[in-house]
Amino acid sequence: MYLAKEEYPLLDVEEYMNALDTMAIEVQERLPPEPYPLKILQAINWYLYEDLQFKGNTTEYYDPRNSFLSDVIDRRTGIPITLSLVYLAIARRIDFPMIGIGMPGHFMIRPTVGEMEVFVDPFHQGEILFLQDCRDRLSKIFDRPVELRPELLELITSRHFLARMLTNLKVIYANQANLEKTLAATERILPKSVAVLRP
User: Which DSSP helix (H) or strand (E) runs through 196?
Assistant: First the structure.
């Protein structure tokens, strides 16, 4: 949200945090009596993608608004990493442990409950994936067979999460030949700058 506030100085961060709180409350009300992990994922998916109509932005993927959480919440569309951020924010608020997975080319998330080894793709309507599905997804992205090494599916820290969002913006602005914003995003990727962004 503070990254979005740099783009929109008058942004009311608290308003959007409250919006996420409200989403979580509404998901909580929809949880089944026996909250098995897959049932919880189904409840979140139904709420986000059926009730609220969130979706991956396939037509304007490189629109910088897809990288600002406030825009993603308002427009109900985004890219894999920002839709993952919305999903994770809701999961955390209902005490359902999930983490970000920095898979190359396509950010995903997964629950950390017991021995579950499933992945969730928030860009594709919360699709539930298994390891073979992840391998197939990577092979499609890189247009060649890909060996699914463990490091490709490692959890991502908050700092790396932010750095990846900034890298996306840097590439978008560079492709738009917006030198000022490209340099600003590049500077913020540096460790010192990332620390400054923390509230």
Answer: helix 191-197
**Closest by CA position to 20, among listed 84, 69, 100, 86:** 86
Residues 104/35, Cβ–Cβ less than 8 Å: no
Q: Give the integer Cα–Cα distance in Å for 181 and 175.
A: 11
**Alpha helices (H) along 94-157:** 131-142
Q: pLDDT digits over 17-38, tens only?
A: 999 999 999 999 999 888 899 9
Sheet holding 98-101, edge to edge: 98-101, 108-111, 119-121, 127-129
What are the distances in angstroms from CA 11 to CA 8, 68, 99, 199?
5, 11, 27, 14
pTM: 0.90
Tokens coding 27: 């998901």
177: exposed, middle or buried (C-beta count within 10 Å: 0-12, 13-18, 19+)?
exposed
Element (H or E) spanning 41, and its range? helix 37-45
